[in-house]
Inverse folding.
């Protein structure tokens, strides 16, 4: 297995994973929309996407978005999307993708990586905790739909 950063030429292949990820979160399938979204993120350098692959087969991906912490006065990252095909879960793919995210954060002198997951996604929670993420018991997060 290798981990590498996605390029614009990978947009169509990543979109298949990304669409499956969105379906997992109860969104309607939209492969053309997924491809356009991924291509825009890569083209505009608005996210960093790492791919796990074995030969020509993509096993999973992670997508991170940059932001800054005013209090910490440093860059930070949101690990927004992590998805591994079901048949490759519990084989180290997710951990390898998180390791790539950590390496990105370190190489950009980031203060932290933040993520969120659904409260019933216990498998993801276990992976995140095994890889050093800590559940936030201090802050509340609010959302405003616009």
């Amino acid at each position: 297995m290798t981990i590498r950063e996605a390029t614009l030429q990978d947009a169509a292949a990543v979109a298949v994973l990304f669409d499956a990820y969105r379906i997992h979160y109860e969104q309607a399938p939209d492969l053309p929309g997924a491809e356009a979204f991924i291509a825009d993120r890569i083209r505009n350098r608005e996210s960093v996407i790492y791919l796990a692959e074995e030969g020509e087969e993509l096993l999973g991906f992670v997508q991170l978005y940059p932001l800054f912490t005013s209090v910490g006065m440093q860059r930070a990252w949101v690990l927004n999307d992590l998805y591994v095909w079901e048949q490759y879960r519990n084989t180290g793919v997710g951990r390898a993708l998180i390791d790539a995210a950590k390496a990105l954060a370190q190489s950009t002198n980031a203060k932290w990586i933040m993520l969120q997951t659904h409260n019933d996604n216990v498998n993801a929670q276990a992976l995140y905790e095994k890889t050093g993420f800590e559940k936030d018991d201090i802050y509340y997060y609010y959302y405003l739909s616009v």
Remarks:
- The chain is about 35% helix and 25% strand.
- The beta strands are 2-5, 48-54, 57-69, 74-84, 113-115.
- The two ends are 41 Å apart (CA to CA).
- The mean pLDDT is 95.
